[in-house]
Write a structure and sequence with these properties.
Rossmann fold; 521 residues; alpha/beta; Trna Endonuclease, Chain: A, domain 1; five-stranded mixed β-sheet
Length: 521
């Protein structure tokens, strides 16, 4: 097939994308809506989710580059095409871990220099960055019109130094003063758009008068970044039709794409989107199912965080949070679940209207598998090659319905797990260790599965088999069989057409491994 030119490889400018590439997923209807309704807007999304391209699109709109928007949704609205001076600042791309304040000030001044050059105003650097920023906004407004301010990855300096308290505190105070200028110059500003991974309440843009409107969890903007199912099938119909035969037809191919790259949900209505970075690279690499998003940046921040906070990682999956806890960090205190959600490693899977709780889980196979790999490599006693030496055999044993082979191989894996990660060895920790291994293999494993009669510890789905696992620590195997008989867990899967195997597993605290197992007859 003749491949289309897709915007991969760091294409983040709307102007370049419209001129040089074959596909643009039209988000201008949402841009029109938010730019018409609000004065200052904040959007939180994980990295490589299209935030920078969105910023560039907004810049092009306010620069009145109308030719870029021909045949797009906004061209059919009553948008008032008018040019505004734009200050577009990007805080990613710098390392703030050493000499953070100097790096921050120099980077912002360099970008403000370019603004002055572009609009031919002469406001030189001085020792007060905040006053210079204020004077530039005022001067642009007097000379041209109200200013549009775009700040991409506003929180990167804070995120980059959260494990360095002294540096982080100094940077936070500097940013607090810098962003306060936006409020002080409100009358000179037409629109402000701010993106980031997370939300720090102590940064002035999120406090006091004229604070930013946080659209991150608003249903109408749930797909402003990312690709919906309809967009995937509409804009990429050419690629889908070309590669579908390789995967057994269109429906099978779409199902595989959805399982691997879809699943990111940012609102209570559970409208999911695909990660655009992964999808574009998938199509450009001849439809290879590769964890492109995960490979683009290892979660080193997570390792730093776990080491610094001594968090218990066994409770990562199936977490629950109130809406107020989604990355709204006060007193610069970062916690595990919001961090994983904001970074894209967990997403919303359900919402309970009665309790106001959001349930979180891994968004898709790509994230589930790569995060499991990260945890396995960083928290095992062996190197990568040793950890994966029996992977194929484990997968085959499950798909072939050979639980004894699986259990013997599982013992090899468990012998390499560092149990210092947990303060105590419990059934729940064992569930985590096993599910982490299954996720690493790319199979589906659910923990804490509730039924009308009780809760199953773990359920593994592998081909034509469903494995229901019950874990006990230092207890007789017969206890697991009694529980299977009493709770009748397998009832909910009896119409699945799959073979169901109920396996009791005994874990010894002293030996820190499996010592016995059996299959309920």
């Amino acid at each position: 097939m003749l491949k289309r030119k897709l915007p991969i490889g760091g294409v983040q400018t709307f102007n370049g994308l419209r001129k040089d590439y074959d596909v643009y997923v039209d988000k201008t209807a949402s841009i029109y809506d938010l730019a018409s309704r609000y004065k200052t807007v904040f959007l939180s999304r994980p990295r490589r989710f299209g935030k920078s391209l969105l910023c560039s699109t907004i810049e092009s709109l306010f620069r009145n580059q109308k030719d870029n928007f021909i045949e797009l949704a906004i061209s059919n609205t009553d948008w008032k095409w008018k040019e505004h001076p734009v200050i577009h600042l990007e805080l990613a791309g710098c390392d703030y871990t050493e000499n953070g304040i100097s790096v921050l000030i120099n980077s912002l001044n360099d970008q403000l220099d370019k603004v002055c050059q572009n609009y031919e105003i002469n406001i030189e650097r001085n020792e007060f960055l905040e006053s210079r920023f204020s004077r530039i906004i005022t001067e642009l407004s007097f000379k041209f019109d109200q200013v549009v301010i775009i700040i991409d990855e506003y929180d990167n300096p804070l995120f980059n130094t959260f494990n360095l308290p002294e540096q982080n505190s100094k940077i936070r105070e500097k940013l607090k003063g810098f962003y306060s200028v936006i409020k002080q110059c409100d009358q000179y500003i037409r629109f402000t758009f701010i993106t980031g991974v997370t939300k720090f309440s102590q940064v002035s843009v999120f406090s006091g008068m004229n604070q930013a409107k946080d659209i991150s969890m608003m249903s109408e903007y749930s797909d402003i970044c990312g690709i919906t199912q309809n967009e995937l099938e509409t804009y990429f119909s050419y690629e889908i039709e070309a590669y579908a035969p390789r995967y057994g037809g269109k429906n099978n191919y779409l199902d595989k794409l959805k399982t691997y790259y879809d699943g990111y949900c940012f609102t209570k209505d559970k409208k999911s989107v695909y990660n655009i970075y992964g999808v574009l690279n998938h199509f450009d690499n001849s439809a290879e199912f590769t964890p492109f998003w995960s490979m683009s940046g290892a979660p080193s921040f997570l390792l730093k965080f776990l080491e610094m906070k001594n968090e218990n990682i066994v409770e990562i999956e199936e977490a629950s949070m109130k809406a107020a806890n989604f990355g709204d960090y006060k007193d610069n205190i970062i916690t595990l679940y919001p961090l994983l959600y904001q970074a894209g490693y967990l997403t919303i899977s359900d919402y309970n209207e009665n309790t106001g709780l959001f349930k979180l889980t891994y968004p898709n196979t790509e994230v589930r598998q790569t995060l499991a790999q990260f945890l396995m490599i960083n928290y095992s006693k062996s190197d990568n090659n040793t950890s994966f030496s029996v992977s194929n055999q484990l997968i085959k044993s499950l798909i072939d319905g050979k639980p004894d082979d699986f259990m013997n191989l599982l013992k090899i894996y468990l012998s390499k797990v560092d149990y210092s990660l947990s303060s105590k060895i419990t059934e729940y920790y064992f569930e985590f260790a096993v599910s982490n291994i299954i996720n690493l293999l790319g199979l589906k494993c659910k923990n804490e599965v509730h039924t009308s009669n009780g809760r199953m510890d773990s359920v593994i789905f592998a081909g034509n088999y469903i494995y229901i696992l019950e874990f006990k620590v230092d207890k007789p195997l017969k206890n697991t069989f009694s529980q299977f008989a009493e709770k009748e867990y397998s009832m909910i899967y009896r119409d699945s057409g799959k073979t169901i195997l109920e396996i009791g597993i005994i874990f010894n605290r002293k030996k820190r491994n499996i010592v016995n197992w059996g299959i309920k007859s």
